Every structure is written in structure tokens, then in C-alpha cells.
């Protein structure tokens, strides 16, 4: 990609278009030739700006689209699959849940508060663009180690930005995940997921329809913020001149979006819109061309009618601005007066800026003059798709993490793990988010492995978001599979069966063979895990070029999964609930320290592979735990993830304020038995002994011990640990809080 | 009982308040631009970020058309409950004493807290007993109650401190652990905790329902029983 993207101030007066200018905007020479060939002439400045965005990685998925075809996307419950603003699944009684995850990594690395805030704003718009009322947000965050001042700053501001937007707009942030690893030091990750609720018949698509219908811009005025965001920020590596890119970051206004949201939902409710699309990356250019493309039609837009924040904006700036809180809709002319009246009530600006045509062309007009005229197909579909050139790396890509744990003693290892930034209590983060607004939240953060939300049908949905970049870095195929299984395991602990999945693929520069290899292997892993579980992928997002001068991020596929549970009264909990309950390890667990948190704390180099994943055994374990939670026969369920069985036990104790006495059977290698990991295949479950024994009909069950007392006591062969809950609690609560000032 | 819940642009918890009040009576939304209160028996000014709250929490909402009527309604003795942003709006409207400042942590905070009923004699707490402990969530950035010390003395003496955070539960640095205050007449109450988010054991607690039940008892008590 271009190493010196234009600074917005320079690009305000574009030079005469040349192949060289195309290179500056991030296109290749061949792509520029192809554009000229398709147009049978050279594009003018405006047209070139539009092509450079639509053919950017961010908008065209040119390095990932071929791979994404491997993901299974069909299922009996899928109502809308990939390609719409958000995917949607059927949740019964005529209701649908729409959801999607999206990244806002580069803006957040440059300006974390606004970057994260507008990431939330963008994903909310994706969901209400399909006609669904947003009911929950989750976020997935990655930063460098919190010992670095930059990482602490990014964490503090990104969390504040997410809270600012979500809290102000009245959508609860119900879950998320957060990890610290040095490869994210320069290029942090901020992924946001949103879920919305709609009646089937109210789901709306973005395809333009009906030549002669009006194209109406709703919401905020258009300014110079975010010019070139998709190409300048999202489709190039970060470099040391990051700060100069701050003008490319959009500014969020949750109050504007709140009115826009309520207004759009009322317009849809009154059936006043033909189609609706949000304005995200590449602004008017992408929203109008995608609407036209999906409808097989054309659109004429008059930039002279777009309400502006600054009077002297150039047409190309208007067409590519990424000003937030805007939507584009198609309205039949006879309904326009009603549309304007609803918009007036919500104090939302609504301006007819063009019309749907049968021409198949996106024409940009300024008053009467045509200043850009492009075939929609060329913009949307003709960007060349590239085959990756994957080559497995021959030498390690990432250096070993610095060692922070020097003792081999079990008790110290446990305290170090529960107090480590990756495993410590997330309370200092999630308490900054309103998790309650909407009156649907049945399981808040830290009560269950998944958030649980009530549905108006009387049933409930559970949702979780997961990913483990370090494990994917060890073994992209197995690591990506684990992310899917772990997410499904979280849902099983709530008693929920997966309905659909969304993913965000955060990777480095795919033009580099070893990154291409990571991407290719990880997508194969995702695809195979989804096939094994029968979970369709209904949408997602790809974020590439996540690299700084120090190298690429860990390959980080993030998986968000939505499932259903019939009886909200029996939604699962992770806390040990009753003294005297039996504790069992459920599932085909084969602990390994490869890629584990303990290996990280010890400063070991990344493992070169992870243990092979046997999907059938995992699938059975998930089904057994889900059934037991749904039947109400067990009192708690928690998946064994980072930090292994010992940390899972500690988390159940801390959540319930109850101790436990446990003996682990596999004890040839005590550290592995205590702290070894195999995400998404085993659970710590408590309840009456008979109920736990009954699970062994379909999945391995190992009796571990009993709930009770005020200490966690674990023996594993020669190793033994006994820690007071108060000490565990201190370490757990301080682990992250100490970095947040 | 018919309760009206004000909806400003930027209100977030108005539907939650409507659902909660709807458990004990009828509840409807009142549009901010409409001066009519539609003959409701009680008004709730809900949580959220009215008009974006970019200037100062509640500072703009206080001037909205509906608030003119809410102020008259309150002055005539009508029961008015302000929750979170609604509390801020009622303070800005001078219907309640004191002011709400940024949390001492300078962060937004969402947490379940224990609140103690100090004065069980108001229209909003009459179903409680003094000393009752309610589990109710808070979620706010600007929730630190402040008044000068002599004013706090006077409020306490007059029974206007209706709710207090239980020991160790003050989430925001409010002076004297004040969680909710009333006007001298007791018909206007503002509180930072969200009783509307504590009306169902499924979502964590039903203790907040006592406030809505109190309001119903008060309103229904005002209406003379039909002669037999």
C-alpha cells in the first residue's frame, strides 16, 4: 500500500489526476489502468477519489473476499446473511435479532476516545439500518502491556469513549473482553458488536428501488471530518506520523444519533421508507453506490444540496466525508411530506439530495452540471480481488513476552495469574458502562460467561464475544477454531444454543506472505469450527494492515455469537452457589501449557502449535452442559479458559464468595494440570453429585471436589495450593485497577 | 393511577420507567414539546441525557415546554419523581434543593448499591419503613449530591433527606451519603439510584417496586372512594 497517504490538508486542492495521484491515494498502477479501461477514459479528480475509497481494502475486501467464501452462511434460522448492514436470525414468534461486529482500530490508535466512540456509533447505525432497535453492545479490546503509558492512555480513553456513546444513547453495554499483549502496543484493537431486535416484517434492506424515488440524507451535516478514513487509516499500516492523521478521525455526537435512531425507527414503523443504509466508511460514495448496486439501479446525487458544516467544501470532500450520524434512505415522492414531518418531530435534518434512476450509473451533480459519472458496477464490483500468497513463516514472527513470574510454586502462580492484567477482575472497566438500560439484562457482566437478555416472547438470548490472539499466533488454524468453541462454551454456560455468528478479522498486512498464511489458516479454522457446530456466519468485518513499525499485531479473529434459551428463569450463573455442592470437570479436557497465560507470565516463546482439536467431543460437552443448565439440575457452570482449571475454580469461588476443596486427578505434570488450557472444551460445573454424574452419559465427567469454606484448596499430584479467598480477591481486584489511576 | 413519564430528546430510561410504573398502574409518555400533562396523576422525569446534556446535566431540559407544566403541577402538590437525569433536571428547575456534581472518581459508574429509607412519610416511600434497605442500581457520571453544610443540616432536620446510601455504598462521594431528597412539602423527590431498574427479581432486584407502589397508594388515597 501507499507508504505516504495524503494528509487531508494537502488533498483539499487535488492536483490534476494522474496515475501518480492514484498511487498516492492507495491504488496500484494496475488498478488505475483497470479504472481507465472500465471508463474508457481517465477519471477526473472527484471520480478518482471515489474509486480510491471504493477500491480500498476497507470497502472492497479485495484481499479477503475470496477467503470469506469459505465461511458457512446458511442455516434454517438465518433471515439476513452477509452483505446487508447487519445479519439477522429468527428468535421465534415473528421476532428477529440482528447483529454485527465491526472494528474501529486505526481511528482508536490515533484518537482513542473519538475512535472508540464512533466505533460504537457506527455499529449501532448498522443495526438500526436494518430496522432493528439496538438492545445491546459488546466490545472487544486489545492493547499493549499496561506497564506502557501509551497503552494505559489508550485503554482509559477508549473505555471512556465507548461508555460516552453507549451510555448517552441508551443502549446497554452488556459484555466484552480485554487483553493486553505487546504486539498491540502501536496498533490497538477496538471491535464493537451490536444486537438489535425487530419483527421479521420490519427488517429492511438497503437495496435502492423504484426509479424516480427520492434519495434522502438524514441526520448530521457534512463536514471535513474523516476525509479519507477508509483509505488513509483503515487500509494502510500505521506509522510514526500517526498524529498527523488525527483530522482523519471522525467526531461522535451520541445525542444526534439518539434522535436519528428514534426517528429512523419511527419512519420504518410507519412504513415510510423504501430502503435504508447507514453512512460509514467512504460516506456518501459507498452508501449510495452500494444501495444502487444492490438494487441493480442508478442514483443521481446533487452535492449542492448536501447540508454542509463548512461552506467551501469541494465536491470530492462532500462525497467522501465520513461525518458521523448520517443515514441515506429512499423515499417515494408522495411520502416525502410525512417523512419530513417525522424528522421535524425528532429534530432530525432531512434533505432530498438526489433520486433513484434506471441508468446503472452513480452520477454526481453540482446544481445542473454533471461532475462525476461512473458505472455503479465498476465502483462496487469491479475492484480486482487478489489471491493471497500464503507462506508459513520459517522463523518466529513475535518475540517472547518479558517474564514476570519467576516462581514455579503453585500458590504464587495462581495469585500471579488471577492478578495478571489479562485475567484480573474486569470490574473497573464494565462499571463504566450502563449494562441495564432497556430492562432486558438478566445476566450482567461477571454473573455468567455470556450476557443474557430477555425477549418479549418470554424466552431469552445469550451473547458473547471472544478471541485469543496469542493462541492464534501460535497456531492460526487451531486458535481460530478455539475462539468459536469458546464462544459457544460461554453460551452453553448460560444454557443457550448458538443461532448465528459474526466475526471481525483483525490481521496485519495481507500482502506479506506470513500474514496471508495467518489469515488463510485462521479463516479455515473458523469455517471448520462453524461447520462442526452448525453455526452460520451472518455477517462481519475485516480489518487488515494492523501493523506498526514494530511489526504486526497478533492475528486476532474476534467471534461474536448469539444463542437462545427457552427459560430465562434458568439462565446459568458462573458463581458457586451452595456449600456442599459437588464440583466436576465436564468435557474432554486435555490440559496443555502451550500458548497458555502461565507460559506468557514465564516469558516463554510462543508455542509453535496447539493441541489438535477434536470437534465431536467438544460438541457433546457443550450440548451436555447446555442441557443441564436448561434443566436447572446444576447450580453453576463456567468454561475453563485462560489460566486453566485452577483459575476457573478461583473465578467460581470469587463470584460466589465461597471456597472449594478440590483434587485434580491428572497429576503427572502438576503445573499443566492446574494451569494448562484448552479453551472451549471443558467446564467447571457445580451442583448435586447425582446431577453431575448424570452428565457422564454423553461426555467425560471428572469429580473434582466440593464447594465450601473460605479458601480455595487444590491438590494436583505433588503440587498443593491453599489460598484464602480474601487474598485471591485482593489480587484479582487490584490486577487491572492499579493501572487505571 | 395514571403516571406520565416525560420524554426529552436524549432520554434513555423513559420506557423503563413507563414499564415499571405500568406494573402498579397505567403509564404513558409525555412529549417534551407538549405543554399538556394529559391529566396524569403523577409525573416521572426519567434518566438519560436530555438534549445531550452537553452544557450541564439537566440545564437545557429545565426550559422545555413540558417542564413549565411539570413545575406548575409540582407547585400545586402533584407528585413528581425525578430519577437520575430527572433529579438533575428538578434541581436545575429549583424544585429540589442542592446540586449534582461529577462523581469523585470522575468516571461513569454503573453498580448495584444498597440504599436506606430515611423518611418513610413521603408519597414515594410510604410502602417502606424507616431503615428499610433497598437494592437498587446507580448509573451516572454526575451524581454527587452537594449542598452547603447548613443547608444539609436543615434538609436532614426537615426530613427532606429521604434516601441514603448504606454505609460503604456511596458510589459517587455524595455529601452525607444523600441518595434522594425531597422538597419541603415532600411531593417532589429526586434520587440518583434507578428504582425502575429494580422491579423484577429476574433482572436483579424488585426492591425499587416499593417506590412505585407507594406512589400508587398515595394517588389512589387522594381519590375519594366511590360511594356505595
The average pLDDT value of chain A, as a whole number, equals 92
Instruction: Kindly state the percentage of residues in helix of chain B.
Output: 10-25%
Question: Looking at CATH, which topology of the domain at 16-55 and 204-380 in chain A would you report?
Answer: Phosphoribosyl-aminoimidazole Synthetase, Chain A, domain 2
Describe the global form of chain B: globular
Fold-level CATH name of chain B: Rossmann fold
Identify the strand order in the major beta sheet of chain B: 2-1-3-4-11-10-9-6-7
CA-based gyration radius of chain A:
26 Å
Polypeptide structure, described:
The complex is a heterodimer of chains A (741) and B (228). Chain A is an alpha+beta fold. Among the domains of chain A are: 16-55 and 204-380, Phosphoribosyl-aminoimidazole Synthetase, Chain A, domain 2, CATH 3.90.650; 582-737, Phosphoribosyl-aminoimidazole Synthetase, Chain A, domain 2, CATH 3.90.650. Chain A is globular. The mean pLDDT of chain B is 95. The radius of gyration of chain B is 16 Å and the shape is globular. Chain B is built from five helices and eleven strands, in the order βαββαβαββββαβββα. The longest helix of chain B is centred in the C-terminal third of the chain and has 14 residues, at 209-222. Chain B has helices at 14-22, 65-75, 85-92, 149-157, 209-222, and strands at 2-7, 26-31, 42-45, 80-83, 99-101, 109-117, 133-140, 144-146, 161-165, 178-182, 188-191. Chain B has a nine-stranded mixed beta sheet with strand order 2-1-3-4-11-10-9-6-7, sandwiched between helices. A two-stranded antiparallel ribbon of chain B has the order 5-8. Chain B is an alpha/beta fold and 228 residues long. Classes of the chains: A alpha+beta (741), B alpha/beta (228).
Please write out the topology:
The complex is a heterodimer of chains A (741) and B (228).
Chain A: H1 8-11, H2 19-24, H3 29-39, H4 45-54, H5 57-60, H6 65-68, E1 78-80, E2 87-92, E3 95-103, H7 105-110, H8 112-128, E4 133-143, H9 149-169, E5 173-180, E6 189-199, E7 214-219, H10 229-233, H11 254-269, E8 275-278, H12 283-295, E9 298-302, H13 315-320, E10 326-331, H14 336-345, E11 350-357, E12 361-366, E13 369-375, H15 376-380, H16 410-418, H17 427-430, E14 441-443, E15 451-454, E16 460-466, H18 469-474, H19 476-494, E17 497-506, H20 513-533, E18 537-543, E19 547-548, E20 551-552, E21 556-565, E22 582-586, H21 597-601, H22 615-631, E23 636-639, H23 644-656, E24 660-664, H24 670-675, E25 683-687, H25 689-694, E26 701-707, E27 711-716, E28 719-724, H26 725-737
Parallel strand pairs in A: 4-5, 9-12, 17-18, 24-27
Antiparallel strand pairs in A: 1-2, 2-3, 3-6, 4-6, 7-10, 7-11, 8-10, 9-11, 12-13, 14-15, 15-16, 16-21, 17-21, 19-20, 22-25, 22-26, 23-25, 24-26, 27-28
Helix pairs in contact in A: 8-9, 9-11, 11-14, 19-20, 19-22
Chain B: E1 2-7, H1 14-22, E2 26-31, E3 42-45, H2 65-75, E4 80-83, H3 85-92, E5 99-101, E6 109-117, E7 133-140, E8 144-146, H4 149-157, E9 161-165, E10 178-182, E11 188-191, H5 209-222
Parallel strand pairs in B: 1-2, 1-3, 3-4, 4-11
Antiparallel strand pairs in B: 5-8, 6-7, 6-9, 9-10, 10-11
Amino acid at each position: 500500500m501507499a507508504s505516504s497517504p495524503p494528509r487531508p490538508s494537502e488533498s483539499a486542492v487535488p492536483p490534476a489526476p494522474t496515475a501518480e495521484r492514484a498511487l498516492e491515494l492507495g491504488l496500484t498502477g494496475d488498478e488505475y489502468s483497470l479504472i481507465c479501461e472500465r471508463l474508457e477514459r481517465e477519471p477526473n479528480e472527484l471520480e478518482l477519489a471515489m474509486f480510491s475509497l471504493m477500491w480500498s481494502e476497507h470497502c472492497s475486501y479485495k484481499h479477503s473476499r475470496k477467503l470469506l467464501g469459505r465461511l458457512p452462511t446458511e442455516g434454517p434460522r438465518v433471515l439476513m446473511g452477509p452483505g446487508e448492514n447487519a445479519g439477522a436470525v429468527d428468535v421465534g414468534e415473528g421476532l428477529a435479532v440482528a447483529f454485527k461486529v465491526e472494528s474501529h482500530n486505526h481511528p482508536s490508535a490515533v484518537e482513542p476516545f473519538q475512535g472508540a466512540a464512533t466505533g460504537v456509533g457506527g455499529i449501532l447505525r448498522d443495526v438500526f439500518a436494518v430496522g432493528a432497535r439496538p438492545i445491546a453492545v459488546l466490545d472487544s479490546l486489545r492493547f499493549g502491556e499496561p506497564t506502557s503509558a501509551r497503552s494505559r492512555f489508550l485503554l482509559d480513553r477508549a473505555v471512556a469513549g465507548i461508555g460516552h456513546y453507549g451510555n448517552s444513547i441508551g443502549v446497554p453495554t452488556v459484555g466484552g473482553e480485554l487483553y493486553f499483549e505487546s504486539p498491540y502496543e502501536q496498533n490497538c484493537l477496538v471491535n464493537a458488536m451490536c444486537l438489535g431486535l425487530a419483527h421479521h416484517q420490519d427488517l429492511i434492506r438497503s437495496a435502492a428501488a423504484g426509479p424516480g424515488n427520492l434519495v434522502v440524507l438524514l441526520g448530521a451535516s457534512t463536514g471535513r471530518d474523516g476525509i479519507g478514513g477508509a483509505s488513509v487509516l483503515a487500509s494502510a499500516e500505521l506509522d510514526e506520523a500517526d498524529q498527523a492523521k488525527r483530522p482523519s478521525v471522525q467526531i461522535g455526537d451520541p445525542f444526534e444519533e439518539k434522535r436519528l435512531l428514534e426517528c429512523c425507527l419511527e419512519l420504518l414503523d410507519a412504513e415510510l421508507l423504501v430502503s435504508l443504509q447507514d453512512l460509514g466508511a467512504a460516506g456518501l460514495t459507498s452508501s449510495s453506490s452500494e444501495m444502487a448496486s444492490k438494487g441493480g439501479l442508478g442514483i443521481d446525487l446533487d452535492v449542492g444540496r448536501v447540508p454542509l458544516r463548512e461552506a467551501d467544501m469541494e465536491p470530492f470532500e462532500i462525497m467522501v466525508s465520513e461525518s458521523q450520524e448520517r443515514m441515506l434512505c429512499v423515499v417515494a415522492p408522495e411520502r416525502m411530506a410525512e417523512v419530513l414531518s417525522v424528522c421535524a418531530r425528532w429534530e432530525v435534518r432531512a434533505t432530498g439530495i438526489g433520486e433513484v434512476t434506471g441508468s446503472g450509473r452513480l452520477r454526481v451533480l453540482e446544481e445542473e452540471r454533471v461532475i462525476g459519472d461512473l458505472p455503479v458496477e465498476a465502483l462496487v464490483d469491479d475492484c480486482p480481488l487478489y489471491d493471497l500468497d500464503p507462506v508459513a513463516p520459517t522463523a518466529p514472527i513475535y518475540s517472547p513476552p518479558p517474564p514476570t513470574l519467576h516462581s514455579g510454586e503453585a500458590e504464587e502462580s495462581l495469585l500471579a495469574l488471577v492478578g495478571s492484567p489479562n485475567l484480573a477482575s474486569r470490574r473497573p472497566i464494565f462499571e463504566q458502562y450502563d449494562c441495564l438500560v432497556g430492562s432486558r439484562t438478566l445476566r450482567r457482566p461477571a454473573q455468567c460467561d455470556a450476557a443474557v437478555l430477555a425477549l418479549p416472547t418470554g424466552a431469552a438470548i445469550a451473547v458473547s464475544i471472544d478471541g485469543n490472539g496469542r493462541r492464534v499466533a501460535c497456531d492460526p488454524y487451531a486458535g481460530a477454531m478455539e475462539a468459536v468453541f469458546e464462544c459457544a462454551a460461554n453460551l452453553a454456560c448460560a444454557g443457550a444454543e448458538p443461532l448465528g455468528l459474526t466475526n471481525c478479522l483483525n490481521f496485519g498486512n495481507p500482502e506479506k506472505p506470513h500474514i496471508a498464511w495467518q489469515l488463510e489458516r485462521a479463516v479455515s479454522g473458523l469455517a471448520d469450527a462453524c461447520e462442526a457446530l452448525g453455526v452460520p456466519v451472518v455477517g462481519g468485518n475485516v480489518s487488515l494492515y494492523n501493523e506498526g513499525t514494530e511489526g504486526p499485531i497478533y492475528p486476532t479473529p474476534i467471534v461474536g455469537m448469539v444463542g437462545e434459551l427457552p427459560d430465562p428463569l434458568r439462565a446459568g450463573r458462573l458463581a458457586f452457589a451452595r456449600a456442599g455442592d459437588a464440583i466436576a470437570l465436564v468435557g474432554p479436557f486435555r490440559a496443555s501449557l502451550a500458548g497458555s497465560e502461565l507460559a506468557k507470565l514465564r516469558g516463554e516463546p510462543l508455542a509453535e502449535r496447539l493441541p489438535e482439536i477434536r470437534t465431536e467431543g467438544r460438541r457433546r460437552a457443550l450440548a451436555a452442559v447446555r442441557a443441564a443448565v436448561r434443566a436447572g439440575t446444576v447450580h453453576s457452570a463456567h468454561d475453563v479458559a485462560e489460566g486453566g482449571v485452577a483459575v476457573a475454580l478461583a473465578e467460581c469461588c470469587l463470584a460466589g464468595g465461597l471456597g472449594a476443596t478440590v483434587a485434580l486427578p491428572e497429576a503427572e505434570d502438576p503445573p499443566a494440570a492446574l494451569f494448562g488450557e484448552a479453551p472451549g472444551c471443558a467446564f467447571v460445573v457445580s451442583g448435586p453429585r447425582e446431577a453431575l454424574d448424570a452428565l457422564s452419559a454423553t461426555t467425560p465427567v471428572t469429580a473434582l471436589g466440593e464447594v465450601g469454606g473460605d479458601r480455595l484448596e487444590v491438590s494436583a499430584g505433588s503440587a498443593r495450593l491453599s489460598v484464602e479467598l480474601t487474598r485471591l480477591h485482593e489480587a484479582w481486584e487490584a490486577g487491572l485497577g492499579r493501572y487505571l489511576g | 393511577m395514571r403516571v406520565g413519564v416525560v420524554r426529552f430528546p436524549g432520554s434513555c430510561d423513559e420506557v423503563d420507567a413507563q414499564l415499571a410504573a405500568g406494573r402498579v398502574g397505567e403509564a404513558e409518555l409525555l412529549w417534551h414539546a407538549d405543554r399538556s400533562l394529559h391529566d396524569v396523576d403523577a409525573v416521572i422525569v426519567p434518566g438519560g441525557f436530555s438534549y445531550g446534556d452537553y452544557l450541564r446535566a439537566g440545564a437545557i431540559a429545565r426550559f422545555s415546554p413540558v417542564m413549565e407544566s411539570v413545575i406548575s403541577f409540582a407547585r400545586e402538590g402533584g407528585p413528581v419523581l425525578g430519577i437520575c437525569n430527572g433529579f438533575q433536571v428538578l434541581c436545575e428547575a429549583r424544585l429540589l434543593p442542592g446540586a449534582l456534581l461529577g462523581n469523585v472518581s470522575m468516571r461513569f459508574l454503573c453498580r448495584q448499591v444498597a440504599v436506606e429509607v430515611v423518611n418513610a412519610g413521603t408519597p414515594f416511600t410510604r410502602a417502606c419503613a424507616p431503615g428499610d434497605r433497598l437494592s437498587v442500581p446507580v448509573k451516572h457520571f454526575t451524581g454527587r449530591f452537594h449542598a452547603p453544610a447548613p443547608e444539609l443540616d436543615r434538609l436532614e432536620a426537615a426530613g427532606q433527606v429521604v434516601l441514603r446510601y448504606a454505609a460503604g455504598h456511596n458510589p459517587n462521594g455524595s455529601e452525607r451519603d444523600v441518595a434522594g431528597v425531597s422538597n419541603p412539602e415532600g411531593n417532589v423527590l429526586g434520587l440518583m439510584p434507578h428504582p425502575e431498574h429494580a422491579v423484577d427479581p429476574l433482572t436483579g432486584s424488585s426492591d425499587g417496586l416499593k417506590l412505585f407502589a407507594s406512589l400508587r397508594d398515595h394517588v389512589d388515597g387522594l381519590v375519594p372512594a366511590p360511594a356505595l
